Amino acid sequence: MTKICSKCNTEKDMEEFYDHWFGVGGKRSACKECVKKERRDGYFYGRTKYKMQTVAEYQADYFQKNKEKLDDYQRKYREENREMVNRKRRAYKKRVKEQKLLTNKLLNSNL
Q1: I need a labelling partner for 92 at 20 to 30 A (CA). Which of 76, 78, 98, 101 fits?
Q2: Beta-strand (E) ranges in 14-52?
Q3: Are the CB atoms for 58 and 48 separated by under 8 Å?
């Protein structure tokens, strides 16, 4: 069985694609060779005249430039969805508390 790589547009055998739970046929859309090339290149984008930025650098730069806009958006979202945000926050706190209790229990049992 074969599949066409979405990056290099060549038809390759299914073994030449990494497994992926969401992909067609349970495989990624790009072949292993193209994925390795992307990783080796460090996912560079946001090309500027003087340098290329990695995704993390680009996101950090974007956050710094748009901090007020992002803060306003988050504040507005939390106000409009107060019940859901509070429900998720309570669930998170409960989950963390249970994990801490379990961790303490395991640590104490090993002593």
Answers
A1: 76
A2: 17-19, 27-31
A3: no
Q: How far is CA 99 from CA 28, 30, 102, in A?
A: 33, 38, 5
| First-to-last C-alpha distance (Å) of the chain | 54
Note the pLDDT tens digit of each residue in 7-24: 999 999 999 999 988 887
d(CA 70, CA 13): 44
Beta bridge partners of 27: 19
**Cα–Cα distance measured from residue 29 to residue 14, given in angstroms and rounded to the nearest whole number:** 10
Question: How far is it, in rounded angstroms, from Cα 42 to Cα 45?
Answer: 9
How far is the C-alpha of 100 from the C-alpha of 107, rounded, in Å?
10
CB atoms within 10 A of CB 38: 13
CB atoms within 10 A of CB 29: 16
Instruction: Specify the amino acid at residue 27.
Output: K
Q: Are 28 and 17 a contacting pair, CB within 8 Å?
A: yes
